[in-house]
Specification:
Number of strands: 0
CATH class: Mainly Alpha
Largest sheet: none
CATH superfamily: MetI-like
Structural class: mainly alpha
Distance between the termini: 56 Å
CATH architecture: Orthogonal Bundle
Helix content: over 70%
Length: 220
């Protein structure tokens, strides 16, 4: 019954719309995560390379984007930049801002992994005059990956949940669909609960995967 605390018929009726929002949420998260992990790696290498001007600039950019609220960054790109001729669609804005914000947070994770390598290994590789690509492929990445991957996995989970903020710029992701369903029927319990359960299910499954990855890396 519509007057009951929980209306199963209504809950099932909004599920198709919620699943469309859920699919968009996952898609935007994966694209943003790919941008964050790749940009963050480049960012961290430049930051640690000690290149004059470029490395301090990379340090400042990472600190700035990590130290300012994600919501403000989102609003600036979506509402302020169009006044200066720079405009993106809601989905593109969400991917760009979430990706850059995630990249700034991943810089410290990559730094921790890279600095975990003994300094002697870097010096030995330089002394042997090994190609840089070979050093990264054979020496650096195999040792850094077990340290960094679980932390990066947790970052992607956080980005998945942070994507709910994209509803504030009209992205039709999961929270936006749940809110619209509630506004249309004046029943928010079912759509918001179902949306929360979808977030929880994915986050829980992903967290278990990250823990397995961490345990596997710890046994190496």
């Amino acid at each position: 019954m519509r007057g009951a605390l929980w209306d199963w018929a209504y809950a099932w009726s909004v599920m198709p719309d919620l699943m469309r929002g859920f699919a968009l949420t996952v898609q935007l998260t994966l694209i943003s995560a790919a941008l964050a992990l790749s940009l963050g790696f480049v960012w961290s290498v430049v930051r640690l390379a000690g290149v004059p001007l470029l490395s301090p600039l990379a340090w400042f950019a990472a600190e700035f984007f990590r130290g300012t609220p994600f919501l403000i960054q989102l609003y600036v790109v979506f509402y302020v930049l169009p006044n200066y001729g720079i405009a993106f669609s809601p989905d593109a804005t969400g991917v760009l801002v979430l990706g850059v914000y995630g990249a700034a947070r991943s810089v410290e994770l990559y730094r921790a992994g890279l600095e975990s390598l003994p300094q002697g290994q870097w010096e030995a590789c330089l002394a042997l005059n090994l190609p840089l690509s070979y050093v990264w492929r054979r020496a650096v990445i195999p040792q850094v990956a077990p340290v960094v991957l679980p932390m990066l996995g947790n970052l992607v989970i956080v980005m998945f949940k942070d994507s709910a903020v994209l509803s504030t710029i009209t992205v039709l992701e999961l929270v936006s669909r749940a809110r619209d369903a509630g506004l249309a029927s004046f029943r928010f319990l079912e759509p918001l609960t179902l949306a929360g359960l979808l977030y929880w299910a994915v986050s829980y499954a992903a967290a278990r995967g990250v823990r397995r990855l961490e345990a596997r890396g710890g046994h190496r």
